[in-house]
Each structure stands twice: as structure tokens, then as C-alpha cells.
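Here is my example:
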Amino acid sequence: MKNPLIEFQDVTKRFGEKTVLNKVNLKIYENEITTIIGKSGTGKTVLLKHIIGLLRPDEGTILFNGKPLSEMKRREWREYKRCISYLFQHNALFDSMTVFDNVALPLIQTTSLTKEEIAERVIKRIEQTELTDAADKYPAELSGGMQKRAALARALVTDPTIVLFDEPTTGQDPIRKNVILSMIAQYRRRFGFTAVLISHDLPDVFFVSDRVVLLWQGTVGFEGTYEEAMRLSHPMIVEFLKSLEGLQDEMMGLLSKESFRSCYVSLFSEEALTPVTSAILYTVETDPLENGTGQKATAEVMEILGESMARHFRTLGGFSVRYANRGILTILPHTSIQEAEQLMVSYAGELKEQATRALKDAGKEGPVRLKGGVAEVSSKDDVDLIADKAASGQRVLAASAGESAGKER
């Protein structure tokens, strides 16, 4: 088991009679993204300020690489502070300074580098964050996404070990939220820093986080991976997870139900002539599994098939959505019913093999049946009707040994 980079041990913080953090224990590991979640007023920002040293605990200990911050000598404390950068909620760029000058500011304030050395570092970070054309522009001249990149370039210019993100997606629309989170994950991999986010934007942050910490009534209600969170029966986690299905499907490569319906509607509204369109509905069937593991195994199978189908049919202009518990529906524009039938059959064997391997990887073995059906699509049909038509003609296309294929089941 690797050692944590930062560890909170029974940390308590009070403001007057109000206890904001109550014996908090958590671990933050190097080169990971750890996200602190929780409702407003649960102490997320207070926790972050303890990491950067803006606040000291009333009780308990905070360790960095195994050494208590309270025992650090002045030189060690300065070195610790220099290895941390903070990306503010609203970027905090100076409007009167260009992007170049904003990015250079931390080096001017905290180092004794020469002007030439500072310029070299700033140019490098600006290039790495794709801001070369904006270097001489002012924040007001930039888009929201470019402002966020400029703030991140400034946070990274000192080569920090740890970058703290205070509500990085606050006030953004859903698409931009995902862009910002993806950017954080991409740059974390590229530059190798440890990221700590505080956020209430769920479920978005779950899918870029290596670890999730849930603050609940002043203490840690949960700490662990997203997969572990899925299995937890904590009331707040359960409440949050109810909204996960749509984004999880997007991260698999499938569309959310809302996005799928939007694509379907636009398919028939953008062209004067209705394109020939067909649909394929694949359904995976397995024998019931015992000890409560059936649902988890099925979810893992569907995730693998979803990723595979999204890649496979996207090249043909298709778009897919998770439909019902064990089905995936794909719309194929400019595809006749005969062509859809051929595509469905030709891909069935590979999908069945993927489902069998996924089930085995989940620790279960048993018969797997892949059923498929096609349907013609009309502009008058809604998505549910299309799925029903495809389901009515489904047959077993591929099955494990001992199972029959090619007939109705």
C-alpha cells in the first residue's frame, strides 16, 4: 500500500462555538485527482485552506510525506508552501495585465529568477496550455475556457507538486463543465501534479476523480474510489448517484438519453428529405447470478459493450443509447433495413465474445445470449416506439456453447 502525500489525522476546526471540521481523517495520494464533495457549508473550502496553510487545525495533525506540518521548520514550511498552487473559483486573473504577465506573476513574487528565465518558463507553459495566440491579450478578450486555461497556466508555472482547485466549474453550463474537468485530468497526466478539487457539481467530478471524499456533518462520511462509492449505502451518496446514469453513459461513449433524443429529433429536422434510417437493438441475457453480484456483473458487461458499440457504429454515422437494463439502441442514418440487418449479424459474434470475457472478468461464468432486432425508423416514431419495434423482432444472434442461436427466445 503506497503512502499518502497528505494525510489528515483527527483534524478539528472550530469558529467560535461552531465546529466546521470534526475529527476529519482522510488521505490524498500522489499523482491522483482527489475530489472533496458535500453540500454547501460542510467545510470543503475550510479543508482546502488547511492544506495550503491558510488555516491551522485546533486539534489533530496534518502530515505531508509523513511529517506533521506543525513540526516543520521555517525553511521546510517555505518549501512546502512553494510546492502548492491554488486555482481560484473565478480564475482571479488581473484584468489590467496580459495573459503573459498574469502567468509570470507567481515567478516574480516567489522566486529570484532573472527576467529571461521567467520569460522562458512562462512561454513554455503558455505553449503547453495552447495559449500562444493569447499571450498578449487581456482576460476580458478571452473566452471563458481560455481564461480557465490562463489561470491553470499561472498555477502550473511554478512546477507545483499539488494544485488545489476551488469549485473550478461553478457557473458553467454542462458542456463547459465537462470540458474543464477533462482539461484538469489531461494536464494532471501531462504535468504529473497531484490535484485536489472541491466541488458540488455531481455527478460530473466522479468520472475524472481517482478518489472521492464526502464531507458529511463536519466529518468524512465516505472516502474511496468511485466504484466503492457506487456500492455504498450512505444516504447522501445514494441521493447523488440517482443522477449518475446519463453522464456515465456519455463517459462510456454512449449518449445520455436527453442527448440521444436531441440527435434523433435533429436528424429529421435538418434535411428537406427524410433520410433512410434504421435502428438496431442489442440485448444481453445471462443466467441469474447469486449473492447480489448479478447487477454489478451486468453493469460491467454493459459498460464494455457500450464502449465497443459507440466506437463501432460512430464510424458509420450512428449514435447509441443505453436502453432498459440490458439493451443498447443504435440509430443508423442513411441505412436501409437490409443493411442494418447485415451490420447487426456481422457484429454479433464479436459482441458476444466481449460479453463473455467481461462476465468472466467480473468473477462469474455462465451462458451468455446476445439478442438483436432491427426496425425501420420514421420521422413520426418516438424513441420508445422504435425500441419496441426492434424488440418485437429480436432473436438470439450468438450464444455460449449449449445455447441455441438464430431463433426467437
Notes: The longest helix spans residues 337-361. DSSP finds 13 helices and 15 strands in the chain. The chain has two domains: 6-243, 250-399.
